[in-house]
Design a protein that fits this description.
single chain; about 170 residues; alpha+beta; six-stranded antiparallel beta sheet; 3 helices
Length: about 170
């Protein structure tokens, strides 16, 4: 089980506000950097929203990674199936693997999830409320296909439900 907790409140406020605005118009992919290895410019917790015909915004600044994520987001938008990506940002061919273990020393691990519909809007609203509140909360993103992100109180026993599975956890 691998769980990593990050805190990036300012960028998350802007990003989840944009996510909520975009969800009214249709599905949006949220890509989150969940791990890094080697010499890369990306940081754990960077995020990118992708919607429509390659429109995007977010804190993911590494150009090779950003371009690859935007390209792969079309598949996630189409199928709705969350996806793990491992990208070698130094590879001129934008090497992408859906599972860790690729032979590159430099890797950016990402999780892409399609947000759509009433449940996604409710989760985005809850995230914004938590970011604006003084109460400590966490965004839990199970890195398992078929499970959608959710918000919990920081001291919630719900973290026990993650026993044995990978998750990205962000303090809000």
């Amino acid at each position: 089980m691998s769980q990593l907790t990050v805190n990036s409140k300012t960028s998350s406020l802007e990003l989840f506000s944009c996510l909520l605005d975009r969800l009214v118009e249709g599905p949006v992919v949220l890509a989150i950097v969940t791990a890094i290895q080697g010499q890369v410019d990306s940081q754990v917790g960077e995020k990118l929203l992708v919607w429509g015909d390659a429109q995007s915004t977010g804190s993911l600044t590494e150009n090779t990674v950003r371009a690859t994520v935007i390209n792969q987001s079309f598949e996630v938008l189409k199928t709705g199936i969350a996806q793990r990506m491992v990208i070698d940002p130094g590879d001129n061919l934008f090497a992408v693997s859906s599972v860790p273990g690729n032979q590159s020393i430099d890797q950016v691990h990402l999780w892409l999830t399609r947000w759509q519909g009433a449940d996604a809007i409710a989760t985005a609203q809850a995230t914004l409320s938590a970011l604006n509140a003084s109460q400590d909360s966490r965004l839990i993103v199970p890195l398992v296909t078929g499970q959608f992100p959710y918000i919990i109180n920081r001291d919630s026993p719900s973290l026990r439900n993650l026993q044995g599975q990978e998750a990205y956890i962000e303090d809000l």
